[in-house]
Structure formats: C-alpha cells, structure tokens
Give the backbone structure.
Amino acid sequence: MTQEPWYQPIGDECTLFEAAYARRLPVLLKGPTGCGKTRFVEHMARRLGRPLVTIACHDDLSASDLTGRWLLDAGGTRWLDGPLTTAVRTGAICYLDELVEARSDTTVVIHPLADSRRVLPLDKCNQLVHAHPDFALVVSYNPGYASHHKVLKPSTLQRFCGIEFGPPEAEIEARIVAHESGIDPALAARLVALGARTRRLQGQGLDEGASTRMLVHAGVLMQQGVAAQAACRMALVTPLTDDPDLAQALRAAVDATF
Amino acid sequence: MNPMPDRTDSTPGPAARDWCSLRAHLQATARLLWDVAPPLHAEDTAESVRLSRHGVTLPLRLEAAADPGERKDCRAAIAHAGAHLVHSTQRFDPQGLKPITMALIGLLEDARVEWLACRELPGLRRLWAPFHEIDLGEAADFESLMRRLSRALLLPEAHDPHPWVAKGRRLFFGSTMQGCADPAASAPTAADSPGLIGDPASLRRVASLLGNDIGQMRLSFNAKTYRVQPTYRDDNQWLWQPSGAVTGLDSTALELPAQAHDGVSGAASSASPGGKQASDPPASTAIEAHRLDRTIAQADPQADGGSWQSTELQTPADVTVHLYPEWDRLICRSRAQWCSVLESGGAAAGLASHASEDGCHDPRVAEVLRMRARSLRAWVPQWAEPETRRSVRQTDGDSLDIDAMVECGVALRVGQRPDERVYQGRERRRRDSVTVCLLDLSASTARSAAQHTDTGLDQARIVALAEAWSEGSPARGDRSACAVHGFWSDGRHRVHYQRIKEFDEPVDAQVLDRLLRLRSQGSTRLGAALRHASALLLARRTPRMNLLVISDGETHDIDVHDPRYLSEDARQAVREARAQGVAVRCLALDPAREEDVRAIFGRDGYRLLPPSGLRSG
C-alpha cells in the first residue's frame, strides 16, 4: 500500500484504536454495512506503519485456510503459512472481515492469539508460533447480520475490545460523500439528507437504511453524468427494497429531494 | 367525537387491498419526507382533504386507489399535509375576521408551509406545480384570483400580470419573507426565517389588505361554496383556534399537548425535520398523542372492568405472567407492556384447568391421530435448512483435497501405499434447531373449513404431532427439538399460553393425551403469543430457531374493535421475530382466510393445509 487511504474520523475511534494497539489488545469493529469499518482498518494500519492482512470470512473457511498447510515440491513436503500465520510471524495487523460468517470451530483458532498468550498453535507441523511484538488482531461484524441465525460465541466476543460504528453525523457524512465521489458539497449534503430519510424506515419495512457506501455510489454515478434522480434510483432505491409500495415511497422521496 | 371511520376496515376485496397498498405507500412517504405518521383515511363523500386530530382524510373512492393519477394526487396531498404538520405550529384566532380574510389567511399559510417545504425538498415544487396550471385569460373572479395567487406564491418564475396577484406576491415575499426570495436556498432555520416562524400576525395583516382589495373590486365571495384550490390542499379548518365562535369550523381542530404519553415507545418525540425544539412538539406528535390519549382512555383498566393490579392478583399460582408490547397501527408505535401472557407452569398443570371434561382418553382415538400424523410427516415442510459443508478425503468429489494429496505424495515417496481418498466435495448437513409449534386454540378453530372434514383444532393437533415427529427430540438421539404450545385470549390482560409438549419431552401417550384434551375457546391475540413463543425460542440460544404457527388467521379479541388492529400487530410481531433470527411460518387452516394469513406472514411465510381428502390416503 503506497498511499494512506482517506478516512474521515467520526469520533475518537482513531485515538481508541491507537491506545488498544499500543498494548496490542485485539479490537472488534461493530457496525452496519457500508459504514467504513474496512476503510478505518486500512487507514489505521497505514497510520501505524504496519502491513495489513485482510481475510474475508465465509462459512467454508477452515482452520487450515487461516493457519496454513503442507505442500509438495521437488524436494519433499513444504509447509506453507496461511494468511493468519503470516501476519503473526511478520507483525502485521490481521483483519478478519465479518468474522461472524466464519464457522464457529474456525473462530476458535484465534482464541490463543486474542488473549494474553498471543500464540498460534500449528498442530499440523507441531509448532507454537509466538506472535511478533507488532502483531495485532482486528475483527469486524455486523450485528444486523448476526441476528439472522449467526452469532459470535461469548468466549470469542469477550476477548476483544469494541469500537462501534454507525452512520456519521450529517455534516461529516456529507464531507465523506463529497470526497469519495467528487460531487459538489451542496449536492452531497442533499444526498446525505435523503440517506437519513431512508433510515427512518429502518424496522418499518427496511432492514437497514441507506449506508454511506450507497450514498457514495449514488454520488459517483452523478459524477459520471447520470441525472441525480436516476442515480439515486439505481444506487439506493433498487437495492434497498423489493416492496413495490416502499419502492414507490422511496422514489417519491428521491424526486422530492432533487 | 368519534374518530373518522376507516372504510376499508370492513371492506375486504380488491378495492380494500388497493387502498391498503396506497396507504402503505403514503405512510412510508410521510415518514420519509417529514418523519410523521398521521393515521390515513379514505372517504368518498369528503369534498376535500381534511386534516384533523384524527389524521388525514382523503377524498378517495377505494375503487380508484390503484389509479396512478389518484395515487399521485394523494401523494401531493400527503406531502402538503406533512408540511403543515411540521411547519404550521401556530393557530389563528378567528375572532373578528371576515370569511374572506380567513380564506386568504388559509391560502397564505398554505403558501408559507409549501415555501418552507420546498427549501428543504425542492423537488416538491415539481410535484405540486401541475396542480397550479391555470388559464390567465379566464374571468378574474375571486376564486380564479385565489388560484392565480397560489400559483404565483409557489412558482417563483411564474409571471402574472394581474395587479392584485402582483401585490399579493410583493406583500408576501416583501413583508414576511424579506431577504428569502430564493426558495431554493439552503435548508430553513429559525434564524433565517424570522417572519415565517416568529411573526404569524403578518399573515393576518397581509390577508386583511388583500381582502380589502377584493372588496374594492366588488368581487363576490360565497363562504359556503368556497373550496380551497388546488385540490391537494386541505380545507384548513384545523388552522383556527377551537375557542373561536366561527360557524362551520371544526371544533376538533389540532391541539398541541405538552408531551406525548409515556405509553408510546420509540421516537415519538424525536426532532422534526424543521429543527424545532423539544419543548415545541411537532404537530404529528400532537396527533399521535391525541390519538393515544383517546385510545388509552378507551382502554383504561378502570373502564374495562378491572385494574391491571387486580388482573395480576387473579392469576393462579402455577401461572407465570409475562408482559409484552403491542403494535398500534394507528400511531405506528408499540405500546410498552400492553399485553400480559399467562403461561401455564407445566404442560400437565396448564391443561388441567382448560381440559375438556368429556374425556378423550380412548386409545383408539389416539391411534387414529397417530396414524394421520404419520401420513402427514412427509408433507410438513422441513425447517432446518440443510447447510453445505466441505467434506475432505473423499474417493470422489468436485476438487482435489490438497492436504490429502500431500499425504498421498509423501506416502508414494516413502514407498507406502497411498490413501486414494484425495478428493473433496460438499455435503449437506443439518444444524441444531429448536422449533415451537404454536397452536391457535381460539373458538374459531372449532369450525371446519371448506373442503375439510376435520375441525381446525383437529387439524392443528395432527400437524403439531407430525411436526414434533418430523423434528425428532433429544430423547431419540436427534439434535433437534420441538415443543408444542397453544394459546387463546380473553382481552389483552389474559392471553393464555399453554405448554403442551416441552422441548425435551418425547412424543408419548401423555403428550397425545394432552393434545386430545385441548378444546377451542376464547379469542385470537396472535401477536402477544408470537412474541412469547419467540422469547422462549431465543432463550434456548440455538442457531436455528423455528416458529410454526397453526392458525386459521382470524385475529380477534373482545377488547379490540378495529378489525385490522390485531392482524397488523401480528404482522409486526412476525417482523420482530424474524429480525431476531426466528424463522416464522404459518400453516393456514382455512383457505378462505388466505389473504389475512398472507398479510401477517408474507407471501412466502405460509402454506395452506391441504384438504382432508388429500391427506387421508
């Protein structure tokens, strides 16, 4: 990574993260989709001068996928570190994105790394890898998804310090949308006001309102020359709901905004 | 005064469905644009849109609710009414005012709130503009001039040569809105619009001046036949203080209470888009609070025959009481701790007090029940959706298992016989799950639906048994567990909830006996029962939680007179349960009520029980 990713702080999350990293405490980032969790980790890794290893978790992620496996080559067998082991050995920040999606037996692998032991047992090659002094573990999850059948075990959750993310205040969110999409700040403010309106329907037809990422997408489309209403219908209304009445109401809100 | 009757409540069929769809759309629009939730009503005899403490009444024939033009008219009306609810915080004293001045104050107030609304949502001007198309060449009578003035105040670019209209526009923008002539400017604040928010008396002065000019022009005005134009605007009757002795004005005009009632949970008093302070609640809150006050007064424990305290004291010792909220569709809020669910302590104890006295212990009856349930087992939908999982070290599969390949290579090099299982694939597996089979035991299940020879309760028994067998139980070595519970209600203070079969209990003669002892009685307060069943499932902390409701879908209770109130609450309860990870489905007993069941459980959330003849074979 050559350039520090732009990140707009919405509170004291940067200070909190730095404090946690100073003592190598594992950090849990909690927040709805599209609120900037991944961007925050990228920004902090760059700011702290540490390499970042990102692993997108899924329900078929095995412990071997994280830790490593034996391979064959011309000279015999060779152990290949997985991304987690690589991060542990080199002192990178390992970011497990949407940890709740991983199988529960897989998440147990990170337990010895997330407490005072800071070790990674590799049973297949009979090693106990002590974490590099600079290694840090960061995981994220979306509580909205978690309620749908998937939950993290308390034994996993209680190993982490948490930073909660949510939709930023309107002024900050407008700054983010304007910067990321390149649109005029006044137009971004209008877009953000529309996003805030969609969040009023959260729990009343919508699982989640429009995320900052969705607003950025709408802004990017506008920057590409797409008319504001068409951009919002494409980036916000269509992905948000399949309900025809709700979609019509969202379209009315879009038309009223621009 | 009684609330405005909601015609759709007793009007099923396509027209009512269209109105429900339109209302859902309009409610969402009101929430999106203004964060308000006034109750909406349709009335085909209404002459104009009416805004009162009972909500917004639209002059609409239900048959026209699907018409795109009508929907657009209604959307314009709701956008305008919402602007009033947010921006019209001042009511006027009609004392000493001429009818013509009152009509002009109404017009100016309409223009004022629309002007403020368009500063925040400029696209609204496009929504309202088509209603203001006029012919400037038509005779300049009073009503025509009113329409022209409305147009001139809404559309800044509109040019009108009539001197009275020009004067009205100059007075309006020059006196009350000095310095704010550009409607597309930034969002409104109290600071940059002192004339609008802080000095409503200026509207009276401007209206008086314009009214005098109308008198000078000798134009006639008939207060009885005058209708506010364009049609999307409400009749402004709520604008006047109720103490005013003005003939023809609605005495139920909007009143602003100090605060919303505590019984409303949620964000009823959240900040309005207009940025008003907490001490100045938006008019929507006033409407909701009024509605709430009225409903609470109706549902006062003293008024319905006993206090909450006495209800609690009357419960038997082996019954536990659980309080749950209930969703009120009219105020779009949950009423905290509104329903009490009386759960019987144990399955046998709970049934003892409600068991039929005629006895159902005939083993032949139990055997018939068992046989029919077995025949239905294959039909009961499988809840625990199979998951795919990678299976390694297979003799065949989709791809190579790298670890197995490495070991195979090592074995070959050291001269050993390699393991040939070097493939990996995906296998389906079932995860742990718990299911509650919730039986509707209300009196309506004593009937037989069309094409069914069994009563609803008989069918519910059979399905419950089939479900219990299908899911298995820990006693049989399975990892899934199924409980069978039932409910009936007798008002919101007494929602009876019986545990017929526990999660860890095998399906044995005792369970069969309890099933056979059930009888239909009371009413159906489905939402409270759903919330309690969900709470029991969530307490199990299992990844898969299923709730199978076996009901005829006829929600009703003795203390509820709004036919849609309980079904809307049940729909909300289903939504809440699903948000918490509980998979909720319904087996509908009565095909005639399929629409009701679909409304509660959604298009994919229910299944009709097949006619008896299909199952008996």
About this structure: The longest strand of chain A covers residues 68-73. The beta strands of chain A are 27-30, 52-56, 68-73, 76-81, 93-97, 119-122, 127-130, 136-141, 161-164. Chain A has two domains: 13-164, 170-257.
